[in-house]
Specification:
The complex is a heterodimer of chains A (339) and B (559). Chain A is 65% helix and 9% strand. Chain A has 339 residues and is α+β, with helices and mostly antiparallel strands. Chain B folds into 3 domains: 2-24 and 387-550, Multidrug efflux transporter AcrB transmembrane fold; 30-126 and 377-384, Alpha-Beta Plaits, CATH 3.30.70.3400; 136-251, no CATH class. Chain B starts with a helix and ends in a 9-residue tail after the last helix. The chains are: A alpha+beta (339), B alpha+beta (559).
């Protein structure tokens, strides 16, 4: 039997300060770049505008493409190589062009195609994406709504299945993941498209998974605490006990994600980048963010001795320990937990 | 063990159902071939590919309120939807999707099309409704010899129209025809020219000259004056010939020819209605103020319509002259129907459908109102993806997917040995179940969908890893193999259920707020999670039970 990280006794939570500083620095770096170079690099799905992927027969001169477009009235387009040296993407999304798409989103793409064909002859348009300004802003608010709703549902579900302290710790740790990922996206200048938003949401699910698996073990260990064991020690023990699983799962997921990253092509690459990063974030935050947060919440709003057990029972316990009837609870948070 | 038998039965049963639902089957598709709609039977796996994988065009149309506000948007949208759908059908795409989105948008997806310009033009032009009397002077019969001569000069026969995209395209006649067509596409009739030349895949070479001329042998009189039928085989050639300027010049004065909206007859032996109409319209759509379906105790389902003052005056005098004649209702140059005029009609008229269903009455009323009150539509979103790009994405996606699977199998078997093999078996079942679910939901496979699939494989593996690690722990505690397996599954259950539930919740949110590709991603993710729940909790456990059953009293487990 091959075993990795078997029976480990790492003191994870001891290093929470270091971890907090590291993650805060990373987020701060992200925030600084946001502050200095503006918001995220939204794709035209969100900003409105026109994206065209074109293939030239000969290797074109980017400057010539640019001047051709400028002369034709499509000024300020971003031109990027995409894959091979014959393939380029052209993004036209400055305010004037987006505004002109309110009347009909396809207009600019037609102009670009005409200009390029006139200048370079045989140009193949592989992909066109043209979005009017209204659709773009709608999609943006839709994406934000989706993230908030997904977090809310997770919180409610965990509050029902565990208790509100676990739920809050998990959701706060998930919010941390969003911040870190947004910093990562900005630092790597990844274009935020709908697919990337989907990746962020998947990452949130994945990270919540990780946290839940550790919390599930905490829940179980709380039911039969060893003598004199503090919550911190229980957390450490739970993380150690689930460590082999974490390593195995992350290894396989990372393998799958790397396959996507390397072989699935340009369109999926931003998605794969976010997911690959997500594997690390999920591992990190479930250990170093969710755990300390739970400790902090527990220290502020401690549970009564019997309560932990009865809650653990309700949440899927199988041990036949008789539940202690809950004593009267003074704080509002506790009442929330009993629903 | 009876329990085990039922478990196996359920797994095998589900596998059989899944395999059946994934088996390539005959699907009837409406495709445009040689410029003609044909119902074709193709054999394929019932999993649809999204636009990003097979190429095509998508459009999001929005009611344009920049010029005037639209009072009843939902009603206006219904009318617009009807018109757009009819025009898309004319365009001839195998499986077009035309649906409402929200209260002011229409989504159009046209897989595999290569002429976005024309599709755009077709969808956006405003509907044009005319009422025209059908010809009863047999004008067409008189000019058929002349028509045949023109068609012969231009080199159009029923046979070569089919092969025009092939070798014959080089002949002078057809080449000049092609250039003429390119011009006539923008002529004042606004009639969209069917691109017969580019659609002629699968043409049958048949070089026999048609005896008796193109029109004489193929155009048969129909039941009403001015109506003719053209067999499917000759449709392309006749449609092509009707575009010829020379032929338009040879039309009897004051007459025009229009196709009917759809065909009659059985697949394979279809006939298309061709009408000869008075060129001058009695009234046009703008004279119509309302049209609504109704049921008359005597006449059955009818459509009642109301005209404005001026329209009513003209309609009354014109219809008075034509009692007993047929009046064609022509939408966008296509005859929708041609009822008989029973009497002179003033402001309020009624079209009797002669036993048609209420649905037909509603549809006709929609057509009439669409012509009367076209809503201007503008493009809110527009995108095209080349077919080659799509094919490229498919091959890359499949490569990544199979590679990811390979890696997972190696890791699982390398680390968990025997138990890993059981897990791989469960994973194979998981794959089949997921694909079957996707086919069952009529889900569309997109590139992000493939990515979602890869991820859900990761989650399915995670469930197995959780269980195995737990079993190892129980074994460490000195429990017997049977007990350890039992406890391992039981303790891992809560974690698996909780993680799956939260991810399914996120997936549902994504589905609700996502569009197109993102929805594809959400669907595959959720389907994958459901399948992974089942395989991890039920299938893997059954495999272990079978193994325990076969090797009783076993002391060690290779895990």
């Amino acid at each position: 039997m091959i075993r990795i990280f078997h029976n480990t006794t790492f003191h994870f939570l001891k290093h929470w300060r270091t971890a907090a500083i590291a993650t805060a620095l990373f987020i701060a770096a992200g925030l600084v770049t946001y502050a200095t170079s503006g918001g995220p690099n939204y794709s035209i799905e969100f900003t409105g505008g026109t994206l065209m992927q074109v293939q030239f027969k000969q290797k074109p001169d980017v400057a010539v493409i640019r001047s051709t477009l400028d002369e034709g009235g499509v000024s300020g387009a971003e031109i990027q190589q995409f894959g091979t040296e014959f393939d380029y993407t052209i993004r036209a999304r400055d305010a004037k062009q987006v505004e002109s798409q309110a009347a009909g989103a396809e207009g600019v793409s037609k102009t670009i195609e005409k200009l390029l064909k006139a200048k370079f002859g045989d140009v193949t348009v592989g992909r066109t994406e043209a979005v009017g300004p209204k659709v773009g802003s709608e999609l943006r608010s839709g994406a934000i709504k989706a993230m908030l709703l997904a977090s809310l549902f997770t919180l409610i579900y965990l509050a029902i299945r565990f208790d509100w302290r676990f739920g809050l710790a998990a959701v706060l740790s998930t919010s941390h993941d969003i911040l870190v990922t947004m910093a990562f996206i900005k630092l790597l200048n990844i274009e935020v498209s709908l697919t990337v938003v989907a990746a962020i949401l998947t990452l949130l699910g994945y990270s919540a998974n990780d946290t839940i698996i550790i919390f599930d073990r905490v829940r179980e260990n709380l039911r039969k605490p060893r003598k004199g064991e503090t919550l911190g020690q229980i957390l450490d023990r739970s993380i150690n006990e689930t460590l082999p699983r974490s390593i195995m799962t992350h290894a396989t997921t990372l393998a799958a994600t790397l396959a996507l990253l390397i072989f699935a092509g340009e369109v999926i690459r931003p998605f794969a980048w976010v997911m690959a990063f997500g594997v690390f974030v999920a591992t990190f935050s479930s250990i170093y963010v969710a755990g300390p947060l739970l400790m902090f919440i527990e220290s502020r709003y401690p549970r009564e001795a019997g309560e932990a057990q009865s809650r653990a029972m309700r949440a899927g316990g199988t041990e036949p320990t008789p539940p202690t009837p809950p004593t009267n609870r003074p704080r509002g948070g506790d009442r929330l937990a009993t629903r | 063990m009876a329990n085990l038998k039922y478990r196996l039965l359920l797994i095998v049963g589900l596998l059989a159902v899944s395999a059946w639902s994934l088996f390539p089957r005959n699907v009837v598709e409406r495709v445009k071939r040689n410029g003609v709609f044909v119902y074709d039977t193709v054999q394929r796996v019932p999993l649809k590919r999204g636009l990003d994988l097979q190429g095509g065009m998508h459009l999001e149309l929005e009611i344009d309120e920049s010029k005037q506000a639209v009072a009843d948007k939902s009603e206006a949208l219904d009318r617009a939807l009807k018109v757009v759908r009819q025009r898309i059908d004319e365009f001839g795409v195998a499986e077009p999707l035309v649906q409402k989105a929200g209260d002011n948008r229409i989504i159009v997806e046209l897989p595999g099309i290569d002429d976005p310009e024309r599709a755009l033009e077709l969808v956006q032009k405003s509907a044009f409704l005319e009422f025209q009397i059908t010809d009863k002077t047999q004008a067409l019969e008189r000019v058929i010899p002349r028509f045949d001569e023109i068609a012969r000069t231009a080199g159009i026969t029923a046979a070569n129209a089919k092969t025009a995209g092939g070798d014959t395209a080089k002949s002078v006649g057809v080449t000049s025809l092609l250039t003429q067509k390119a011009d006539s596409g923008k002529d004042s009739t606004g009639k969209a020219v069917a691109s017969t030349t580019s659609d002629s895949a699968g043409a049958k070479p048949a070089d026999k000259p048609v005896a008796g001329g193109l029109f004489a042998s193929n155009v048969q009189p129909g039941q009403m004056p001015g109506q003719y039928f053209v067999p499917e085989a000759a449709f392309a050639a006749i449609d092509q010939a009707l575009q010829l300027p020379a032929l338009l010049d040879a039309m009897p004065p004051g007459k025009v020819m229009r196709w009917g909206v759809d065909s009659i007859g059985e697949p394979g032996a279809r006939a298309y209605a061709l009408y000869v109409l008075d060129a001058r319209a009695i009234i046009q759509g703008d004279a119509l103020t309302d049209a609504r379906p109704s049921t008359d105790p005597v006449e059955g389902n009818v459509v009642q319509f109301t005209l404005n003052n001026e329209g009513a005056r003209r309609f009354k005098s014109e219809t008075g002259k034509h009692v007993g004649d047929n009046m064609a209702i022509v939408l966008d140059q296509r005859v929708v129907t041609a009822p008989v005029l029973n009497s002179a009609i003033g402001r309020n008229g009624q079209i009797t459908l002669g036993g048609g269903s209420l649905q037909q009455a509603q549809d006709l009323a929609l057509v009439l109102r669409a012509g009367a009150l076209p809503v201007p539509l503008k493009v809110a979103q527009y995108g095209t993806i080349g077919a080659s790009l799509g094919a490229d994405s498919v091959s890359k996606g499949v490569l990544a997917l199979s590679l990811a699977m390979g890696l997972v199998v190696v890791i699982l078997i390398g680390y968990y040995r025997f138990a890993g093999m059981l897990a791989v078996g469960a994973l194979v079942l998981y794959l089949v179940y997921t694909m079957a679910m996707l086919a069952g939901f009529h889900a569309v496979l997109t590139l992000p969908g493939l990515a979602g699939f890869v991820l859900s494989v990761g989650i399915a593996v995670d469930a197995n890893v959780l269980i195995f690690e737990r079993i190892r722990e129980e074994l460490d505690h000195g429990k017997s193999v049977r007990l350890a397996i039992d406890e391992g599954f039981r303790h891992a259950l809560s974690a698996i259920v909780d993680t799956s539930a939260t991810t399914i919740l996120s997936g549902m949110v994504l589905y609700q707020y996502g569009t197109g590709p993102v929805r594809g991603f959400a669907v595959t993710l959720v389907a994958g999670l459901v399948a992974s729940l089942f395989t991890a909790i039920f299938v893997s456990k059954t495999f272990f039970l079978v193994w325990l059953n076969r090797s009783r009293g076993v002391q060690t487990l290779s895990i």
